[in-house]
Design goal:
By secondary structure, this protein is α+β, with helices and mostly antiparallel strands. It has 3 helices and 12 strands; from the N terminus they run αβββββαββββββαβ. The protein has 2 domains: about 70 residues, 2-Layer Sandwich (Wheat Germ Agglutinin (Isolectin 2), domain 1); about 60 residues, no CATH class. The protein is about 20% helix and about 25% strand. The strands form 4 sheets. Strands 1-3-2 form a 3-stranded antiparallel sheet, with no helix packed on it. A 3-stranded antiparallel sheet has the order 5-4-6. A 3-stranded antiparallel sheet has the order 7-9-8, with no helix packed on it.
């Protein structure tokens, strides 16, 4: 009887260990956008990884009233990480979006670029989401002509001036 009980315990322990180590247990589906997830979930990413593949996570149903602002991957400021999650948005950076000053694109989280005022090349800018509306030809701060502001932004370049000629 002792041998049989011991065998059962060992078999159960091995089966349980195998189940816990199974890679298919508790894996959330990968996502590119929140549209890839169910109705009560969103595409969650680590802080600052706005352009990376995320995993579908449940949207928070209730948040505390703690004010600890974060900048969402959509360029909006939220009261805290939980509030961003309720809105279905991952966090780009800790702190309000307006506070993200930069000199160069690497100063900004993924999905953002360093925007400077038109013509203020090399000056202090603010991290902002990549543009979605595109203009006609623009001159980039690197002195190159781009077909539109979106293509310049994809290259990580702020706009020096509109038009197909660079004015310096």
């Amino acid at each position: 009887m002792k041998i049989r009980t011991c065998s059962l315990i060992i078999l159960c322990a091995l089966a349980l260990a195998g189940a816990l180590a199974s890679p298919t247990l508790a894996q959330a589906p990968a996502c590119a956008t929140s549209n890839d997830c169910g109705r009560a979930s969103f595409c969650g990413r680590p802080i600052g990884a706005c352009l990376k593949t995320g995993t579908c996570v449940a949207s928070p149903t209730a948040c505390t009233a703690t004010f600890d602002p974060v900048c969402g991957c959509n360029g909006q400021t939220y009261d805290n990480e939980c509030s961003a999650g309720q809105a279905g948005v991952s966090v780009a950076a800790l702190g309000p979006c307006e506070a993200m000053a930069c000199l160069h694109n690497p100063d900004c989280p993924g999905g953002f670029m360093c925007h400077t005022a038109a013509g203020a090349c090399g000056g202090v800018g603010a991290c902002g989401v990549l543009p979605t509306a595109c203009n006609a030809f623009v001159c980039g701060c690197d002195g190159e002509i781009y077909a539109n502001s979106c293509i310049a932004a994809e290259a990580g370049v702020s706009v020096a001036n509109a038009g197909d000629t660079c004015r310096r």
